[in-house]
Amino acid sequence: MPFEGLSEKLSAAFKRLRGKGRLSEADVKEAMKEIRMALLEADVNFKIVKEFVAKVTERSVGTDVLESLTPAQMIVKIVNEELTALMGGESTKLNISSKPPTVVMVVGLNGAGKTTNCAKLAGFMKKQNGKRPLLVACDTFRPAAIDQLETVGGQVGVPVFQMGKGDPVAIARAGIEHARQHGNDMVFLDTAGRLHVYEELMEQLRVMKEAVDPTEILLVVDAMIGQDAVNAAKTFDETLGITGVMLTKLDGDARGGAALSIKAVTGKPIKFIGTGEKLDQVEIFHPDRMASRILGMGDVLSLIEKAQQSFDMRKAAELEQKMRKNRLTLSDYYDQISQLRNMGSLSDIAGMIPGVDAKALSGASIDEKALSRTEAIIQSMTQAERDDPSLLNNSRKKRIAAGSGTQIVDINRLLKQFEMMQQLSRQMSGGSLKKMQKMARFGKKKGGFPF
Prior knowledge:
This protein is an alpha/beta fold.
């Protein structure tokens, strides 16, 4: 989980402050020492830590804070605001050209995952923004890079333009022209990975930039390499003038120093984050939401958006009506647990809920094997049996067990779970997702959530 260590240490520091009631200037400075150590251990740039602690200390020792009824809460609020500012203040979207196609040049170090993340971004823009992207294979150095791009492009439903092992700059030009002729309004150029110290390869990127005049130059960096990610961002920016960063593998970086340092060091925003290996696990980076998660306040807006992306709205509406009338079927049950699986690990979801200890659910996820057994059992039933499980006598269960490669005990366990879901549905007066959407609208309207 991202920022796990930092979150724990900050929470401990704030807990000690809350236990003191009224605070003195000495109490605040002692807490700032702990915050300073927590940030340094999270691999945040030393200069950034020094400036951050100085700002928070200056604001926290003011009379309005120390003499307030809840000074500890005021300090948490200040830290939250300064963390948000440190990471950029607000989310920054991709620039869209007024004259299509929008050209996004994706660059980065060897092994940063540019090809996969090119496809992730193209799929995201297609699904979430209704764009018609084109992937262009400009990596002519790495063996099988073109094949990989065609594979991941196919998985996200985005076409790929390639000309084999030719001149990358010529391929980029031809790809953009192809996009104009075929109505693609976005072009993602998958460039070859390079070492930022290798001048010849960096020069090739400069030539490509001059040749195609990209709308965006997006740097893909691995969050798990810590300050090396920040150094890479600085070097690429000095050479090319990047417009933004995509930080990958943030889900595997327990420290989070790169996310906290990149904007402050380079002045360029983190625009996207990769949160897993799947091609749909990419999100817009929201500094305010990330700050809230670091401080254990949750991230309800992102949770709602994740639910909206993972759940079929039409099916959700149908399910609500069935729940109202207590007419749930085993087919409905399977649809819901399948869509829940698409939301990711339980620890990631828990980290977005205020007050929930995500660490307690670390590594927890939907049991894929159990889900496969459930799918096999339900698909081995007739439609009548799915609609009315009371038909399932011992003879029918034996047939289903044989057809699904399971045992009668597995079928009985499924029926018990389904019965519990039906009991829960009787207690619900409306669809939970619909309530969550209502909360989201309220939160956006008010500029935040009232908790």
